[in-house]
């Protein structure tokens, strides 16, 4: 075999190896992206939206995570502010 043919064969093998390596890398990268997308979609589906609760004093609707909480007689009450909570506890029966 002549040196030119050996060089050409080596060049072709090198190009084929690079293409194959690139395809494998792209396939692995695409699978990883698909997995991340699936995990993101599942996380979006399982994310619970915040619930609105009503203040028993002023009847204002507020997000549960922002409300002032008061646990009394085994029941949890949610208030829009400390002043509504104080007003509720100042009245023995309180409004529900």
UniProtKB/TrEMBL annotation:
<feature type="domain" description="TRASH">
    <location>
        <begin position="55"/>
        <end position="92"/>
    </location>
</feature>
<dbReference type="InterPro" id="IPR009078">
    <property type="entry name" value="Ferritin-like_SF"/>
</dbReference>
<dbReference type="InterPro" id="IPR011017">
    <property type="entry name" value="TRASH_dom"/>
</dbReference>
<dbReference type="InterPro" id="IPR007029">
    <property type="entry name" value="YHS_dom"/>
</dbReference>
<dbReference type="InterPro" id="IPR012348">
    <property type="entry name" value="RNR-like"/>
</dbReference>
<dbReference type="GO" id="GO:0016491">
    <property type="term" value="F:oxidoreductase activity"/>
</dbReference>
<dbReference type="Pfam" id="PF04945">
    <property type="entry name" value="YHS"/>
</dbReference>
<protein>
    <submittedName>
        <fullName>YHS domain-containing protein</fullName>
    </submittedName>
</protein>
């Amino acid at each position: 075999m002549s040196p030119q043919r050996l060089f050409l064969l080596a060049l072709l093998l090198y190009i084929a190896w690079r293409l194959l390596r690139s395809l494998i890398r792209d396939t692995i990268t695409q699978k990883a992206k698909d997995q991340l997308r699936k995990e993101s979609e599942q996380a979006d589906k399982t994310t619970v939206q915040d619930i609105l609760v009503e203040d028993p004093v002023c009847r204002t609707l507020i997000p549960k995570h922002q409300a002032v909480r008061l646990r009394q007689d085994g029941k949890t009450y949610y208030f829009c502010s400390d002043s509504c909570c104080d007003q509720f506890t100042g009245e023995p029966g309180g409004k529900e």
